[in-house]
Design brief:
Blueprint lengths: L2 H49 L5 H32 L1
């Protein structure tokens, strides 16, 4: 093989590893953000419960469901990107 072809193949491999690392970091960031949002909602829920404001609980449940659905959608999107990255190699 010529050095140009080897150089090109090496660059492609480096790009693929970089994309893979970026996807892992993105997935980690999404999970951490979700955990922080859920912890905040749990804190709010406990605060409302301690104040006796149980009527404000349904919006919190709705927000929690929305957060979990967003996590699921983003995770599935990352899985598709990861699969496309593997297929490109």
């Amino acid at each position: 093989m010529s050095s140009t072809v080897q150089q090109y193949m090496l660059e492609q491999e480096v790009r693929a590893r970089h994309r893979s690392a970026m996807l892992k970091l993105r997935e980690k960031a999404i999970k951490e953000k979700t955990q922080a949002e859920l912890a905040w909602l749990e804190q709010r829920k406990n605060s409302f419960r301690n104040k006796g404001a149980d009527d404000k609980m349904p919006p919190i449940k709705k927000k929690k469901r929305a957060i979990l659905q967003r996590l699921k959608a983003e995770t599935e999107g990352l899985k598709k990107l990861r699969a496309a990255n593997r297929a490109a190699n």
